[in-house]
Design brief:
homodimer; 142 residues; mainly alpha; two-stranded antiparallel ribbon; disordered N terminus; DNA-binding
DNA sequence: TATTGTTATACTCTATAACTATA
DNA sequence: TATAGTTATAGAGTATAACAATA
């Protein structure tokens, strides 16, 4: 088990703390999503389609910062499993929508994410989660 | 450039925010450390040896959560470059120390890390960095 | 000329299994 | 029996380059 690292200057560094916290939280989330045969990436893709039905895979890639070349096997996998459907919107792009099964899976995804949040938010003092989320958002957005 | 992602439930999620913020900060840090021919991993290794001279590579791996098999090429690379020296402490393990050149490089690493911190801490409201660091530490330690 | 989807490919990180030599 | 260092290897995730079809 990863010991706390005791005293090193690393513990005062933003990049180090971000990396360790992210790795820990994402590892827990990955285990939970594995039970649904999903990765954090494919789960986030389903959430985006659920919020924006008809979106193209290139657009999803731009939102999630996933290269469109890497969206291809992800989308193909989810479609093969009957979780999403494609409909041509013009000659080169498809609008993606969740199937009923896809929407049902999104419900289960949300449950796993909530369990993940509960696990780690409980390690913070009351009312600190919102401030943490705001700080993190400021860090990478704009 | 990664757009902010507008309105998706993702923006309210701890795991998502951690992942995006960590990726952004680490990408910037990686670019800065590239100028020193280092990765965030090898740079953190040098910082640990600087703080704990005589430490073994397995022990560094435990502190940083890097598998000892993956420490091997990293340590070999740094030694080849004359940044660290090994001294047998018993028949199976070596104590690692930085050379003069290694210590000099650590000074430059700290400068790059400070520039990285400045870049991203400036996006927070005054006095929020400490709270953010404390929250992140609570997230993965213990 | 730019964009979508696609293929192929490479590179980095990380993980596991196995071996040796020591303890 | 457990540990340090090592080798080899496999799997993610991510990156680039190129192409066809379409806008």
């Amino acid at each position: 088990m990863a010991r706390s690292g005791q005293s090193t200057e690393l513990n005062g560094l933003l990049g180090y703390q971000l990396r360790r916290a992210s790795a820990m939280v994402m590892a827990d989330l990955a285990v939970r999503l594995e039970t649904l045969d999903l990765t954090p990436g494919s789960a986030s893709m389903l959430l985006v389609i659920s919020a924006k039905p008809g979106i193209t895979q290139s657009e999803i890639g731009r939102i999630l910062s996933i290269k469109r070349a890497n969206m291809v096997p992800m989308a193909a996998n989810l479609q093969t499993r009957g979780l999403l459907s494609r409909k041509r919107v013009d000659g080169r792009s498809h609008g993606l929508k969740l199937t009923g099964e896809g929407e049902a899976l999104v419900t289960r995804i949300r449950r796993q994410i909530k369990a993940n949040e509960k696990e780690f938010a409980s390690r913070l003092e009351a009312g600190q989660l919102g401030k943490l989320l705001a700080g993190l958002a400021a860090m990478w957005q704009q």
